[in-house]
């Protein structure tokens, strides 16, 4: 199965800055997972969940430097992983902003 076949069904706007003909769904898994978590729709989530599985998605997400708090909470809820275990949570806690932005 070609990469373009694997990407079929994902929202095209997720790839606004990427040439899908050159995209490798396995080599760029972390990028795709983060993009779907932060900008995707539920249908996009269903596609990556079916392809990668929740455990693999969470293993990538645990190492993201940044991740939308809503996406982090969603992953924490469905996987049972504490939000404190996510790298992005620890980084955000260790560098608070000086004012609310």
Q: Can you describe what's shown?
A:
- The chain is an all-alpha fold.
- It has six helices and no strands.
- Helix 3 (42-52) packs across helix 4 and helix 4 (54-61) packs across helix 5.
- The chain is globular, with a radius of gyration of 15 Å.
Total E-strand runs: 0
Number of domains: 1
The class by helix and strand makeup works out as: mainly alpha
State the order of secondary-structure elements, H for helix, E for strand.
Answer: HHHHHH
Summarize the helices and strands and which ones pair or pack.
Elements: H1 3-7, H2 29-39, H3 42-52, H4 54-61, H5 69-79, H6 87-94
Helix pairs in contact: 3-4, 4-5
Essential attributes:
6 helices; mainly alpha
Brief rundown of the structure:
The chain is built from 6 helices and no strands. The protein is mostly helical and 101 residues long.
